[in-house]
Amino acid sequence: MDAAAQEAERAGGAVGRRREAATAGHAGDAAKARSYLHDDDPMVRSSALRALDRTGDLAARQLEGALDDPAAAVRMTALELAAYRADVATAAAASRLLDDDHRVVEAAAWACGEKISANDNASAGRTDASGSETAAVVEALVRVARSHTDALCRESAIAALGAISDPAGLPTILAGLDDKPEVRRRAVIALAPFDGPEVEAALLKASTDRDKQVRAAAAELRGV
Q: If exposure means fewest CB atoms within 10 Å of the residue's CB, which of 52, 61, 72, 173 is most exposed?
């Protein structure tokens, strides 16, 4: 069998294992799903994580371990699941803001915003993380929003800062109004939880932006 045929056979086997892992999740077969957590194929491992989460048998330690998986696809899946898990520390998700893969950084920023904002809503302004931990996450998001080379990462970080709505993130959101159009649009939306003269001035400026969607978002927030 030549190399191309061997690769096709391996790929075909991986597809079958992915389906088996997914089916195990729908069938409630946690043991079967767990058996694929250390599969050679990253997409099979991702399917196993989702399957175990579906059965309710995905332990926090397994999910946090997947955040360090060598495959970006698995780390992204772990972040997606961790966003809604109170037993997975926000700091664990925030650690991936330093990831080498921009897709993982984008997912990590989103997960941080979801975790902290959800905890705020559930506990009437108190998060499960300490004030210093939340401040550290905000600081990390600020670094991504201000200096990451990928616009999607900057956009995701600004969206997270808006969701968290910590005053320490406001200057960075305002700075995002001078970025690329997609980042500017996100920055306008991220201003929604904030008020004050500098916010009003920023929205007024955004209402004359050269990008139509930026102008529309600013007009909606200004109520005009």
A: 61
